[in-house]
User: Which sequence fits this backbone?
């Protein structure tokens, strides 16, 4: 933990009866609705943040199901069509002995999305009631999810490039599958979910704890 | 006075700090959560505008030059980034094509244009452009949606997948895109919120 007693000297904008702008960092009187410096909407705490987080998370989960069931790609070679799903694409790469690339795709398309669902749900449930978890660890979890979420888009871009390049009519062509759209939506929804999170909520309980 | 310009709050944990003018131009982190409050880069505005201009020019090359060439025996094809986007643009996949267009071209381009619009008048000694605040705010907000670097990793994966069936060569746009990713990454290291917002707020020209 930090130096004992150190946290007592820290004052939050809310303690000071002020409201901070999360866009530009300015501290203003609580009666302003938008930031006098950057014109962003100002709120001491983002009301209903957890509900928005959960709503986007559920939307992301729903589209993640078809994203894994339908094909990402339909490859046609010499009149024969072959569909490959997200996991199927990883298996193909392993057969081609491209282990490093297979690992990248597996992490981006499976590990990151599933990890993100778990972490966001954990934080949302935990922060909607009193808890005794170390806020520093929760903050690291939140920052990690916000930073890493966008990298799941890799597979969607791979599909886009393959589709654009491999167009030789009946001999060989690659078409995108429904899963590509579902997966892209899932990534967008979970990014919105992570962004809806007000990280200040992570620290609020600690404030109350030290005040008592 | 509606706000105290000497005070800044950590956007992640709400702790307020009062920095002296000397501290404002150094690198500071929030004591509680570690968020980087100021980046402490000199000439931040000049560099951000310069890099945004470079990025806009590079995007022009990316759009119109061929990105990749594919050679598979008697067949060959080339694809520009626009082709990559249009590959999806039929039927129910059209929204996906639009999303790819937004993430790899429109958002990175919009960020550069917004930054130039908001900050170039400061360099030229003019007053703030109309809506400069909104422009700068959007440039920050759009950051997670600019996915040029992720697209490059996607290109690498696609090249490996194609390695067995065809020879792939890189075009001019490919290298312009690599530069674009580097320029945008560099630009983000100069985008100190405190410096940019303070400069915009104190522009009295």
Assistant:
């Amino acid at each position: 933990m930090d130096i004992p007693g150190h946290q007592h000297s820290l004052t939050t904008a809310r303690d000071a009866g002020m409201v901070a702008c999360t866009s530009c960092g300015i501290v203003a009187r609580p009666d302003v609705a938008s930031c006098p410096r950057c014109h962003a909407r100002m709120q001491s705490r983002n009301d209903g943040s957890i509900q928005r987080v959960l709503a986007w998370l559920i939307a992301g989960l729903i589209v993640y199901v078809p994203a894994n069931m339908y094909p990402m790609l339909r490859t046609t070679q010499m009149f024969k069509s072959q569909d490959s799903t997200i996991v199927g694409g990883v298996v193909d790469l392993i057969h081609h002995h491209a282990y490093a690339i297979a690992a990248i795709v597996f992490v981006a398309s499976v590990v990151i999305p599933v990890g993100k669902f778990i972490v966001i749900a954990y934080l949302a449930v935990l922060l909607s009631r009193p808890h005794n978890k170390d806020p520093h660890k929760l903050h690291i979890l939140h920052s990690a999810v916000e930073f890493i979420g966008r990298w799941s888009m890799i597979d969607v871009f791979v599909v886009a490039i393959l589709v654009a390049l491999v167009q030789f009519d009946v001999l060989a062509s690659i078409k995108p599958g429904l899963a590509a759209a579902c997966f892209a939506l899932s990534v967008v929804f979970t990014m919105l979910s992570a962004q809806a999170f007000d990280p200040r909520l992570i620290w609020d309980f600690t404030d109350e704890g030290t005040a008592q | 006075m509606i706000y105290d310009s000497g005070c800044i709050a950590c956007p992640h944990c709400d702790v307020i700090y009062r920095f002296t003018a000397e501290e404002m131009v150094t690198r500071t982190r929030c004591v509680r959560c570690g968020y980087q409050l100021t980046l402490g880069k000199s000439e931040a505005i000049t560099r951000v505008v310069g890099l945004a201009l470079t990025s806009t020019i590079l995007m022009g090359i990316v759009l119109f030059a061929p990105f990749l060439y594919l050679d598979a025996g008697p067949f060959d094809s080339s694809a520009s980034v626009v082709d990559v986007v249009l590959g999806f643009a039929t039927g129910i996949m059209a929204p996906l094509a639009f999303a790819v267009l937004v993430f790899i071209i429109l958002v990175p381009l919009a960020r550069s244009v917004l930054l130039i619009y908001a900050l170039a008048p400061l360099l030229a000694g003019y007053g703030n452009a109309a809506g400069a605040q909104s422009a700068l705010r959007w440039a920050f907000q759009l950051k997670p949606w600019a996915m040029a670097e992720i697209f490059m990793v996607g290109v690498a994966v696609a090249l490996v997948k194609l390695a067995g069936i065809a020879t792939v060569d890189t075009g001019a746009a490919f290298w312009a895109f690599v530069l674009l990713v580097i320029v945008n990454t560099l630009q983000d290291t100069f985008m100190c919120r405190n410096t940019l917002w303070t400069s915009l707020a104190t522009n009295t020209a």
Notes: The CA atoms of residues 3 and 198 of chain B lie 13 Å apart. The mean pLDDT of chain B is 87. Chain B is about 55% helix and 15% strand.
